[in-house]
Amino acid sequence: MGTIRNEIRRLRFEHGEMTQQELAEKIRVTRQTVNAIEQGKYSPSLEAAFRIAAVFGQPLESVFHYSNDE
Amino acid sequence: MSFREKSAWISLLSMAGIYGLYFGSVIHAGPQASFHFGGLLGTIIALVVVQIVLNVAFAIFAPTEAKAPRDERDKLIELRAMRVAYAGLATGIAFACFFGAFNPPIVFNTNALLFILVTAEILRSACQIVQYRRGA
């Protein structure tokens, strides 16, 4: 089973210390969902992942990384 | 804790508490007692009132969150919980059909089916809470 890691925490910090709530409002999810994504507990839909990447002005692969643990 | 999780807690605790009292009285009355429609109606009204009052009370403290539509994670959690609840419901109904074949009183059947339905609903809320607690 693979793992999806992300750079959201770092990117939030680099974008004026954007809060989870601010990011959540921009991508139209709850703050708890942003927190779950950030901690790798929840894998967002492709659409939400693209929205997150767009908020930070980054390509998708710069925000999310897939590593195959097998 | 998100508003959706609080709502799941309200559902679980109110159903367990209020229906617990109802089924307690049913068990106390014994299997041969006549069906008490008034008792069931009172239970349903009490449940609706308690759930509305508590949900409104929590919504007052977090109005933005309460008004926000469910996001994709909320929907996924709800779907997973529904799947578990359905499995519980189907299993319960299968048992009820099996034991119903031995022709117990209709009161027993009605309350048994209600118990299965309530258990499935409690299971649904419990699954939602577990998933919210885990983060996914």
Overall geometry of chain A comes to globular
Q: According to CATH, what is the class of chain A? A: Mainly Alpha
Q: Tell the overall outline of chain B.
A: flat
Question: Which structural class matches the secondary elements of chain A?
Answer: alpha+beta
What is the N-to-C succession of helices and strands of chain B?
Answer: HHHHH
Summed over residues and divided by their number, the pLDDT of chain A gives a mean of 91
Largest interface comes to: A-B, 14 and 13 residues
Report the total helices of chain B: 5
Question: In CATH terms, what is the architecture of chain A?
Answer: Orthogonal Bundle
Kindly state the percentage of residues in helix of chain B.
Answer: over 70%
* Integer-rounded radius of gyration of chain B: 17 Å
List how many beta strands of chain B DSSP finds.
0
Relative strand content of chain A: 5-15%
Low-confidence stretches of chain A: none
Count of structural domains of chain A: 1
Q: What is the quaternary state of this protein?
A: heterodimer
The overall strand count of chain A is 2
